[in-house]
Write a structure and sequence with these properties.
Blueprint (H helix, E strand, L loop, with lengths): L10 H22 L4 H20 L16
Helix pairs in contact: 1-2
Length: 72
């Protein structure tokens, strides 16, 4: 799992984090296959909320990894 901080998670939290990351992968796959722009937008918004849930577990990945990172 990339994009994680050194937050100590118990077994239940780790299992949920793993499920949420898998759900995010599945959601992104569905976003690519969206049949209408409206469905694509709803899936994108869902990803935003899922990302917020992931940050609760110390996830530090990008919200939109397909976009280039800003120059530092």
């Amino acid at each position: 799992m990339t994009g994680l901080t050194a937050l100590i998670l118990d077994a239940e939290e780790t299992a949920q984090l793993t499920r949420l990351l898998a759900l995010r992968d599945q959601l992104r796959s569905e976003h690519v296959r969206a049949t209408t722009p409206a469905i694509a937008r709803y899936l994108e918004l869902t990803d935003v909320y899922l990302f917020l849930a992931l940050t609760h577990f110390g996830y530090t990945g990008q919200l939109f990894p397909e976009q280039p990172s800003p120059a530092r």
